[in-house]
C-alpha cells in the first residue's frame, strides 16, 4: 500500500512538472510573423493568402492579419485572442466584420477553422 502511494505521488509530481514546462514554453510561443492560406470549400472563392503578426503575452494573443482574395476583396484588421496549451482562439475584426479562429498550434504551424458572415473554412499558417 505504501509503495502504491509513493508511485502515485511520483507520477503526480512528474505530471505537474511537465504541465508547468508546457505552460512556460507556451508563454511567447506564437510571437512572430505568420503566413499561409485560408480555404473556403463551399464558397465562390475557394482559397486565398493570409499573413500577419502575433504577440503572445501569457495566455493573451494580439496582432494584425491580412486576408487576400476574399469574396469582399482584401481585408485586414486586429486579431485578439487567447491561447491555452496548443489551442488558440481569437477574432479578427475587419471592416465591420468578425472572423472567428479556432487554431491548433504545433511548433511553427497553426492550423484550424474559421467562421464568419462571409464564409466558413480552414486556415494553415507557418511562422516566417
List the helices and strands and how they pair.
Layout (H helix, E strand, L loop, with lengths): L1 H25 L5 E8 L7 E11 L2 E11 L2 E12 L2 E8 L2 E10 L2 E8 L2 E9 L1
Antiparallel strand pairs: 1-2, 1-8, 2-3, 3-4, 4-5, 5-6, 6-7, 7-8
Low-confidence segments, given as residue ranges, are 2-26
Helix content: 10-25%
* Order of strands in the sheet with most strands: 1-2-3-4-5-6-7-8
Rg: 18 Å
End-to-end distance: 53 Å
Number of structurally distinct domains: 1
* CATH hierarchy: architecture: Beta Barrel
CATH superfamily: Quinohemoprotein amine dehydrogenase alpha subunit, domain 2
Order of helices and strands: HEEEEEEEE
* Class by SSE composition: alpha+beta
Give the strand content.
Answer: over 45%
How would you characterize this protein structure?
It is a single chain. With 128 residues, this protein is of the alpha+beta class. Helices cover 20% and strands 60% of the residues. It has one helix spanning 2-26, and strands at 32-39, 47-57, 60-70, 73-84, 87-94, 97-106, 109-116, 119-127. The longest helix is centred in the first third of the chain and has 25 residues, at 2-26. Mean pLDDT is 84; it is low at 2-26.
Amino acid at each position: 500500500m505504501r509503495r502504491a502511494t509513493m508511485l502515485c505521488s511520483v507520477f503526480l509530481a512528474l505530471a505537474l512538472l511537465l504541465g508547468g514546462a508546457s505552460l512556460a514554453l507556451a508563454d511567447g510561443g506564437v510571437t512572430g510573423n505568420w503566413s499561409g492560406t485560408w480555404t473556403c470549400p463551399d464558397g465562390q472563392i475557394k482559397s486565398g493568402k493570409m499573413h500577419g503578426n502575433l504577440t503572445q503575452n501569457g495566455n493573451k494573443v494580439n496582432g494584425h492579419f491580412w486576408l487576400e482574395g476574399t469574396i469582399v476583396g482584401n481585408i485586414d484588421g486586429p486579431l485578439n485572442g487567447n491561447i491555452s496549451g496548443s489551442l488558440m482562439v481569437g477574432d479578427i475584426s475587419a471592416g465591420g466584420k468578425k472572423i472567428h479562429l479556432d487554431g491548433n498550434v504545433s511548433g511553427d504551424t497553426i492550423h484550424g477553422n474559421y467562421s464568419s458572415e462571409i464564409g466558413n473554412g480552414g486556415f494553415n499558417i507557418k511562422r516566417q
